[in-house]
Amino acid sequence: MTLNHENKFAGKRYNANDDLDGISIYNAQAYGFDSANYTVTATLEDNSTVVLSDAYYVPMTDRLTYNYGAVAGEKQVSLIDLLKLDFTRKA
Fold this sequence. Notes:
Blueprint: E1 2-4, E2 22-26, E3 37-44, E4 49-51, E5 55-58, E6 63-67, E7 82-89
Antiparallel strand pairs: 1-7, 2-6, 3-4, 3-5, 3-7, 5-6
């Protein structure tokens, strides 16, 4: 599943508030998320990619959650530079 990000700001990162810190997708099964783990890959405006921490499906609340920093050394991604996020189901 791919989530596209429409950026209407033509500037550069201003401060840490512009960085992706986490994602929660509610009613996740309706979007096709129904297993435990997903690899999250960010594509930036320059078409480079950054592999982020995994996202996890939480059946009790039917949410898919991603939290920045779950893996040591994870690269911070600015929402200003973000083009899309790809979620790939892990085997």
